[in-house]
Amino acid sequence: MTESVVQEIPLPEVTLEEVFRAEGADYSKRPPRPSVVEIHNQVLRQDAKHVRPVLIWREFAISGAEEQELFLEKGPKLKSSLLVKVAGRAEKLVLLAMTIGSALDNAVADYNQAGKILESFALDAAGSIFLAKSIMLVIAELEDKYKVAGMSTTFLLGPGHSYWSGLDDVRTIIETLKAEQIGITLTDSNLMIPRKSVAMVMGVGHNLPDFKGKTHCDFCSLQKTCNMNKFAQNCGG
Ligand code: SF4
Q1: N or C: which end of the chain has fewer CB within 10 A?
Q2: Per-residue pLDDT band at 1 (split at 50, 70, 90)
Q3: 101: number of Cβ within 10 Å
Q4: Domain total of the chain
């Protein structure tokens, strides 16, 4: 595969409970107030139309690995000791980026400006779940594709998390994929715009190390406090 592939992803279903979970709200002892439920329902009903999940991805052959770096054939190198541990024996590395678009960021900003802080908070949390569930859909498809070819895949991981130092590789992934095609741009400090975007990688091979049941959250120092870690193969967090 020499060019990046762009795919629009069908909008996943997001429930009220998932949004509450992303907010870190605990309603196990006492249910949320009706007004809180109404605001969240309204955000999910009205503002979901702003969400446009779109993916860009490309696979590269892996040409070698050192302790801290993985080298891609006709591609860049990525610097992460966890990546080397997880995908150092893989034959290919899939680079992918996804965004749910800037309209949701704008809607969150509009709510903020109007002083509707609860709506803004709810929509922001819903955006994280839309992104996480869209990624889960994509990963399930990619896993199936490689399984049919007799290969297995690693869990997803990427820069921007505590186990991968620095954000330079966000730029590497975004520029290698030419992710501006799907509307992702970078600030000078390598933060992605729109905010609800991710840049990640996944190893593919015949003889991968056994990390059965693990996700990148198992290697993240935020695992115990992060509200998104229940959405395993993801990170809107
Ligand atoms: S979802 Fe949370 S716990 Fe998992 S890698 Fe991202 S920040 Fe860490």
Answers
A1: N
A2: low
A3: 20
A4: 1
User: Is residue 52 situated within a structural domain?
Assistant: yes
Ligand 1 center–CA 165 separation, angstroms: 14
pLDDT digits (tens, 9 = 90+) for 68-107: 999 999 889 999 999 999 999 999 999 999 999 999 999 9
Index of the ligand 1 atom closest to the CA of residue 162: 8
Query: Is ligand 1 within 6 A of the CB of residue 235?
Result: yes
229 inside domain: no
Ligand 1 lined by 99 (C-beta under 6 Å): no
Evaluate: CB of 229 within 6 angstroms of ligand 1: yes
Residue 13: inside a domain: yes
pLDDT at 225: 85
Instruction: Tell whether 63 is covered by a domain.
Output: yes
Tell whether ligand 1 has an atom less than 6 A from the beta carbon of residue 232: no
Q: What atom of ligand 1 comes closest to residue 220's alpha carbon?
A: 8
CATH code for position 204 = 3.40.109.40
Model pTM? 0.92
